[in-house]
């Protein structure tokens, strides 16, 4: 479309009769965007009535409730199913923050025992749970959205901030502090149901179910039985995520903890396919196998400490691509001319997982240890300092509180280990166990982004030995027991640091070699006597 000097776009559209069409298109886009934001804000995935009926039929074999509560009732599919399946319930209570949903739920036929209230889960007083002496059923489908996503869209529909998972300072202000809103709700509900005859029955992501169980076990909350029954989330909700029905049964006066949860491949399966459990402070996907490998799981921090790569949250500035002519460009396609002393070759998760050897990107590393002053760059590397100042606003906009009060252009995940020449590294994001030996490139150590994990070594032979151990059958079996492959980041530092590498080396008949290469391990500790598997 061409425009004359005196004709703006609005006038042009008027002449072509397209202005009305443009406004209608814009209004549709705005409406759809608002609709998507609302759907995101409230994690709004309504449960089909057919699925709610199947679930209520299943749980009717486990409990005959006096009180039924759906804390996020939506338009009321679970309430309707509960009315049909549990006609003798004395009270059925639904709660939702959306007034239109509340009105829809109130209109369904019932026996006079249904009450639907407009309210906020986070502010509601759940004293009703103590008013009934009979069995209690809490069921439903809580929001499938994370607090980070709610913060991104500036939602107020979020619980009061609290470090409810008991994370340490660094974990609490980095990625581990992100949580699903349903996780917070389910944890609250498990606490409310302690010492009651009750059943918690909730649809949720499998990752959420595991986090809830982990919290319950870490905080010694008591329940009698637990199940995770897998469902097809794509079929019922049109989303590609691993999901389940989480069932936790509570009874008063329990004198011991239950540390297992049975996993079923469907709602109707009669027998579990596996058993999830809790061992030495972490979840185990095959608890029945844990005793077999107990000696190979670390009981205390090791001298081999897996590290995550560098966290900077400013990739378009800090990560530069090297062009064939030797020049560098940043994420804004700007030509960058800076001193190269603080530029290091880098690998991303995709490079490690896919076995790429070539280095095409470099990372600017302005600190050698966390918290060190960066002012020296101004005098020693003036071009780099000018480049950083040019993008200072982007650094100041980094949202994580981890950078608060730190020197300009601070990064995290950096230390002496970053600059050792040899590494054994793995991606945390990909669903494979592809350990890589990464050596120096162009005379410099290779660095990683913060989705990678690595061990550092002075000598290549050390890295080769550790990689061989990590790729042994015994390690594969341990990883199979500890890793949950449906997680967003299946390979974690916790999993990697769980390996007792000295004990595994002894089992593999490489104890002498291990002692020679890593004598510091044996100065203050003694290996257990291991029996053959």
Task: Describe, in plain words, how this protein is organized in 3D.
With 533 residues, the chain is of the alpha/beta class. Helices cover 32% and strands 17% of the residues. The strands form three sheets. A ten-stranded mixed beta sheet has the order 3-2-1-4-5-7-6-8-9-10, sandwiched between helices. Helix 3 (49-59) crosses helix 4. It starts with 8 loop residues before the first helix and ends in a 16-residue tail after the last helix. The relative contact order is 0.08.
Backbone structural class: alpha/beta
| Main sheet specs | 10 strands, mixed
- Please give the count of helices: 21
Number of strands: 20
| Terminal CA distance | 75 Å
The helix content, as a percent range, equals 25-40%
Low-confidence parts, pLDDT < 50 over ≥5 residues? 1-16, 18-43, 147-164, 166-178, 527-532
Strand order of the largest sheet: 3-2-1-4-5-7-6-8-9-10
- Radius of gyration (Å): 28 Å
Shape: globular
Chain-averaged pLDDT: 85
The fraction of residues assigned to DSSP E strands is 15-25%
């Amino acid at each position: 479309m061409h425009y004359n000097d005196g004709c703006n776009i609005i006038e042009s559209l008027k002449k072509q009769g397209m202005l009305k069409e443009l406004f209608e298109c814009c209004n549709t886009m705005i409406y759809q965007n608002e609709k998507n934001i609302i759907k995101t804000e409230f994690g709004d995935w309504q449960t089909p009535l057919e699925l709610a009926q199947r679930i209520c039929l299943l749980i009717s074999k486990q409990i005959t409730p006096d009180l039924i509560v759906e804390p996020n009732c939506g338009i009321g599919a679970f309430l309707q199913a509960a009315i049909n399946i549990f006609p003798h319930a004395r009270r059925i209570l639904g709660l939702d923050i959306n007034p239109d949903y509340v009105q829809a739920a109130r209109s369904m036929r019932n026996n006079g025992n249904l009450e639907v209230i407009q309210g906020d889960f986070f502010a509601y007083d759940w004293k009703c749970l103590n008013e009934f002496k009979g069995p209690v059923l809490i069921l439903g489908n809580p929001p499938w959205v994370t607090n980070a996503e709610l913060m991104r869209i500036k939602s107020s529909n979020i619980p009061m901030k609290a470090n409810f998972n008991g994370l340490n300072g660094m974990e609490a202000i980095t990625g581990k502090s992100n949580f699903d809103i349903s996780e917070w709700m389910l944890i609250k509900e498990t606490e409310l149901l302690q010492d009651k005859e009750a059943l918690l029955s909730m649809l949720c992501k499998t990752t959420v179910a595991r986090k809830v169980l982990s919290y319950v076990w870490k905080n010694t909350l008591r329940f009698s039985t637990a199940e995770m029954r897998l469902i097809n989330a794509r079929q019922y909700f049109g989303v590609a995520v691993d999901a389940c029905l989480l069932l936790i049964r509570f009874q008063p006066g329990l004198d011991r903890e239950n540390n297992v949860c049975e996993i079923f491949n469907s709602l109707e399966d009669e027998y579990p396919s596996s058993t999830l459990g809790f061992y030495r402070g972490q979840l185990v996907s095959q608890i029945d196998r844990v005793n077999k490998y107990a000696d190979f799981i670390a009981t205390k921090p090791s001298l081999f400490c897996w590290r995550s790569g560098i966290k900077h949250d400013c990739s378009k500035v800090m990560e530069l691509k090297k062009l064939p002519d030797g020049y560098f460009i940043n994420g804004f396609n700007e030509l960058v001319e800076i001193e190269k002393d603080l530029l290091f070759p880098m690998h991303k998760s995709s490079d490690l997982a896919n076995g790429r050897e070539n280095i095409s990107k470099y990372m600017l590393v302005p600190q050698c240890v966390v918290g060190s002053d960066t002012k020296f760059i101004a005098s020693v590397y003036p071009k780099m300092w000018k480049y950083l100042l040019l993008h200072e606003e982007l650094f100041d906009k980094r949202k994580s509180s981890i950078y608060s009060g730190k020197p300009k252009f601070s990064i995290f995940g950096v230390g002496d280990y970053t600059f050792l020449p040899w590494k054994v590294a793995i991606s945390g994001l990909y669903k494979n166990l592809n350990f890589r030996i990464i050596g120096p490139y162009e005379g410099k150590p290779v660095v990683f982004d913060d989705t990678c994990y690595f061990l550092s070594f002075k000598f290549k032979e050390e890295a080769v030995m550790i990689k061989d151990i990590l790729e042994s059958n015994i390690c594969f079996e341990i990883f199979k027991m500890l890793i949950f492959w449906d997680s967003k980041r299946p390979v974690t530092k916790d999993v990697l640091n769980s390996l007792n590498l000295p004990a595994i080396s002894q089992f593999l008949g490489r104890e002498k070699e291990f002692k020679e290469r890593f004598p510091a391990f044996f100065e203050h500790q003694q290996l257990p006597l291991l029996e053959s598997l």
